[in-house]
């Protein structure tokens, strides 16, 4: 039995705080818009009016940053221990577990986290990623670095402090590294995306579009809140945009109600089933299920996936793609944007393009056929399809598989070699 | 110069501490890249005193978002309202 204080059920402060913050965002827009309207009526010149609107935009942008900041996972992992007080100070509740079983379990998780961070292969993958993308590398790598720091400096620390620190590391491990816990949490989010706007697309309806989307595995859709069709053409200076994914990034790992959104724009042939399927595959299955946005990958897998896609991006054998290899570089050149950020953008787009290019193969109708081909003759299957299959499978592991593995006494971390889950 | 370099430069010019600059640098990842570009572009065109206000506001909003303190919400809104006027 554990002896924690206090031992009482509490509401999830993280979810409640988030709701309040979202309400704040709405209230802020109401207050600031009215204020700007009032001062403009009073005769502000165009330059002053522009500055006011910019200030409003930045203030609202800051609210958005706070809601979705990568700092949130750390706050979440610590949420039961810390309370910010109105005077700006922080109250930290320190609990020392006395039940040997709890202490042992936390220590085991902390050691597992250390073991994963110290893994030579993992460190090589991170080094390769940092070499290619530098400062444009995804922010979750900074979470890895901060966890590396947290696991160090245990020498000469009193036993009670070690117990507390192991408890913190165990919480971080369960949140971001423990595949079994991650899949269980993702499985609790039973959601299918809201589909809207497709009535404006000739020959389509929201119901029909939802049915088409339903051809993809539900596990790849359940971190998406809404898919909307907008009957307008959208373009950059270089190319037309067929769709856009609005992702909350690694925040998808938190058990709050907000997920990702995606928009599909009018583009050539979009009314055809095959074209719409490809665009949905690109935005939803691709962009909402990559190393940044998936809510079903462990940190170890995120790093491995990005490393593998980066290798494929840089592989000279990779078939050229006009969008990846010409249009994106042209866009970055014309805007004078950073080359490493361009590379990172190419990697994310490459993953989505692989899924788009083989969309039909990953639907429930055609996937069994692909699976047979991969099992019988993997050498005959293109490398990009093998890559997509490997990672989509990693994200398709259903929650009940984790539960049944635990019942059978198998390992709860199913990241490696769970029977039947990998080709 | 990367987007984060540009952000760090404008924050440093406004006298924002290294610790706070780190908070900005990590938080800007919340934006999709194209939105972050616009955000930094606008910040670069506003004044240093604006950046100092935004820095204070970012910290206040963090404190608000992770607590449930209605008074703090009213304080922040009041300051913002006066600021855009």
Give the tags.
heterodimer; A: 423 residues; alpha/beta; four-stranded mixed β-sheet; two-stranded antiparallel sheet; 16 helices; 8 strands; 56% helix; globular; B: 85 residues; mainly alpha
* Model regions low in confidence, pLDDT < 50 over at least 5 residues of chain A: 1-13, 405-423
N/C terminus separation of chain A: 42 Å
* Tally of contiguous helical segments of chain B: 5
Structural class of chain B: mainly alpha
Summarize the structure.
The complex is a heterodimer of chains A (423) and B (85). With 423 residues, chain A is α/β, with parallel strands linked by helices.
Describe the protein in words:
The complex is a heterodimer of chains A (about 425) and B (about 80). With about 425 residues, chain A is an alpha/beta fold. Chain A contains 16 helices and eight strands. In chain A, strands 3-4-8-7 form a four-stranded mixed beta sheet. A two-stranded antiparallel sheet of chain A has the order 1-2. A two-stranded antiparallel ribbon of chain A has the order 5-6. In chain A, helix 8 crosses helix 16, helix 11 packs across helix 13 and helix 12 runs antiparallel to helix 13. Chain B is mainly α and about 80 residues long. Helix content of chain B is about 80%, strand content about 0%. Chain B is built from five helices and no strands. Chain B starts with a helix and ends with a helix. Classes of the chains: A alpha/beta (about 425), B mainly alpha (about 80). Chains A and B meet through helix 1, helix 2, strand 1 and helix 13 of A and helix 1, helix 2, helix 3, helix 4 and helix 5 of B.
């Amino acid at each position: 039995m554990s002896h924690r204080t206090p031992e009482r059920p509490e509401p999830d402060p993280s979810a409640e705080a988030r709701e309040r913050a979202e309400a704040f965002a709405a209230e802020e827009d109401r207050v600031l818009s009215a204020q700007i309207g009032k001062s403009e009526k009073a005769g502000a010149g165009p330059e002053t009016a522009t500055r006011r609107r910019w200030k409003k935009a930045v203030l609202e942008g800051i609210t958005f940053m706070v809601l979705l900041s990568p700092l949130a996972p750390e706050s979440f992992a610590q949420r039961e221990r810390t309370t910010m007080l109105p005077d700006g100070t922080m109250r930290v509740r320190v609990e020392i577990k006395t039940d040997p079983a709890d202490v042992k379990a936390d220590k085991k998780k902390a050691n597992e986290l250390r073991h994963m961070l110290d893994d030579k292969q993992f460190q090589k993958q991170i080094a390769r990623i940092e070499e290619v993308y530098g400062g444009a590398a995804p922010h979750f790598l900074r979470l890895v670095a901060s966890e590396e720091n947290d696991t160090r400096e245990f020498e000469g620390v009193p036993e009670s402090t070690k117990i507390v620190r192991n408890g913190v590391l165990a919480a971080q491990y369960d949140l971001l590294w423990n595949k079994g816990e991650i899949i269980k949490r993702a499985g609790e989010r039973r959601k299918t995306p809201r589909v809207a706007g497709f009535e404006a697309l000739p020959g389509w309806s929201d119901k029909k579009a939802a049915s088409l989307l339903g051809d993809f595995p539900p596990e790849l859709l359940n971190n998406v809140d809404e898919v909307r069709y907008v009957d307008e053409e959208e373009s950059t200076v270089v190319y037309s945009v067929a769709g856009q994914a609005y992702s909350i990034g690694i925040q998808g790992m938190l058990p709050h109600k907000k997920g990702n959104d995606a928009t599909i724009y009018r583009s050539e042939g979009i009314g055809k089933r095959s074209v719409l399927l490809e665009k949905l595959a690109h935005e939803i299955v691709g962009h909402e299920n990559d190393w940044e946005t998936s809510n079903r990958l462990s940190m170890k897998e995120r790093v491995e996936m990005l490393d593998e896609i980066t290798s494929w991006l840089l592989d000279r054998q990779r078939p050229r793609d006009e969008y990846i290899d010409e249009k994106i570089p042209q866009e970055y050149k014309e805007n004078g944007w950073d080359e490493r950020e361009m590379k990172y953008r190419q990697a994310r787009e490459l993953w989505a393009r692989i899924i788009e290019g083989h969309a039909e193969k990953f639907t429930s109708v055609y996937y069994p056929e692909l699976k047979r081909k991969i099992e019988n003759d993997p050498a005959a299957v293109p490398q990009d399809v093998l890559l997509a299959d490997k990672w989509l499978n990693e994200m398709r592991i259903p929650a009940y598989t984790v539960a049944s593995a635990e019942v059978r006494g198998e390992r709860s971390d199913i990241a490696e070699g769970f029977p039947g889950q990998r080709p | 110069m990367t987007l984060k370099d540009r952000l760090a430069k404008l924050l440093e010019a406004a006298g924002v501490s290294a610790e706070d600059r780190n908070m900005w640098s990590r938080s800007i990842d919340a934006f999709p890249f194209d939105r972050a570009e616009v955000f930094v572009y606008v910040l670069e065109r506003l004044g240093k005193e604006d950046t100092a206000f935004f820095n204070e506001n970012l910290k206040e909003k963090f404190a608000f978002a992770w607590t449930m303190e209605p008074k703090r919400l009213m304080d922040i809104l009041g300051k913002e309202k006066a600021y855009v006027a």
